[in-house]
Amino acid sequence: MKKIKFLIFLFALSSCNKYLGSVDPDYTPTNEVTEIFSDLDKNNLRSEVEFGDIIFPEAVNPSLNFNTFKIEKIININKKSVVNFLNEKIIISKDKTIYLIDKNNQNKFEYELNLSKDEKTISIFNFNEDIHLLTNRSRIFVINSENILELVDYGIYLNIPPIVLDKNLILFDVFGEIYYVKLDDYSISKKDNFILKPGISIKSNIFQDNTNSYYLINSGTLLTFDNNNFDYFNNYILEDLNILTSLDQFSELVDSPFSHNEYLYFLDRFGKIAVYNPISSDIFWELDINDTILSYLFSNDGYLILLTFSKILIISENGNIINSYVHNKKSPLSIFNIQENIYLISDQGISKLNLKDKIEDIFYKNKFTNNLEIFFQDQIIYVKDDKSLFKLSE
């Protein structure tokens, strides 16, 4: 019965892939972000901004510091590859092969997985100091000395990475069912159901506030969990925001909402931003920049840094645009920071930007493709795209 339901699901998915597909790379926004500057108080713009330490989407070690770096390709991968950093090793999946690379001496080991057709690794995680792998067919493997051993096969179909806790996994199957796995004995139990709403498949972070944890199944389906026991509950935070907002609907979130000063920050792909308290139903501020948000950074001082197709904007914790940088990159992909310096990754390389003088200080030429992920490991930055894993270091 599960296989029949799965075939029906695939048929339905294929019939609506015009909606669920990713934004075309040549997509041009209808309204340009420059339109909002006609109404700005120019006195709000600052030539220098000390925005503090970046805490979202990933906390960056404040001691990370190098003025110049080199870009080194570590390994060729593919679009479906998963990368994680565990026990001083880099673990990488590529088709049926698992690579373990020692970060200290660069020794590389290869393991072969016995996977069925269309089966792939969707998560790599650590439990009891052992490296575990989870596939989209809900099989868990463990790397044991020189072998990979299959531990369990749950027989359910997954297309979303799980939430990995200290001793548990939360799995989401393709039919909207939530399962809990106890890693102590690998027992599994169904806990709840959720309604899958239309949206784009994304790699979501899980963020927490004082009471809840938030996770995006896709760009339009936000799930909320209780922090005490990670039980799922329907609290309709996104639906409530859409009732209260003066902007258009928030339906294509860039990432899970993150919390700062008791407010949740909602970023919609198409340029809408809302800072919202779901308990008091209070919107602190909201803004529509009328441009597509490609990437973001957020600091502990409340500064929001956005990358769009044409600009980098810095927004204060009160919702004022206080700095803007017009870049000339045809295919901007993402941004990251090293201390107070902002770096822009495009398909041609990495630019170190001087926001004060509005110039590009340094350009590191390198070919990058889509679906970028950035990992911070002590004094090394790793960048993953659809084809390669790169290391950035002095």
Structure description:
The protein has 394 residues and is mainly beta. It has a single domain, classed as Methylamine Dehydrogenase, Chain H. It has three helices and 33 strands. The chain has a five-stranded antiparallel sheet with strand order 1-23-24-25-26, with no helix packed on it. The longest helix has 14 residues.
Descriptive labels:
single chain, 394 residues, Methylamine Dehydrogenase, Chain H, 7% helix, globular
Poorly predicted segments: 1-43
Strand order in the sheet with the most strands: 1-23-24-25-26
By CATH, the architecture is named 7 Propeller
Instruction: Tell me the overall shape.
Output: globular
- State the helicity in percent bands: under 10%
- Report how far the terminal alpha carbons are from each other: 55 Å
What do the pLDDT scores average to?
89
CATH T-level fold name: Methylamine Dehydrogenase, Chain H
Give the strand content.
Answer: over 45%
How many DSSP H or I helices?
Answer: 3
The main β sheet shows up as: 5 strands, antiparallel
How many beta-strand runs? 33
CATH class: Mainly Beta
SSE class? mainly beta
Number of domains: 1
For this structure, the quaternary state is single chain
Radius of gyration over all CA atoms, rounded: 21 Å
Per CATH, the superfamily is YVTN repeat-like/Quinoprotein amine dehydrogenase
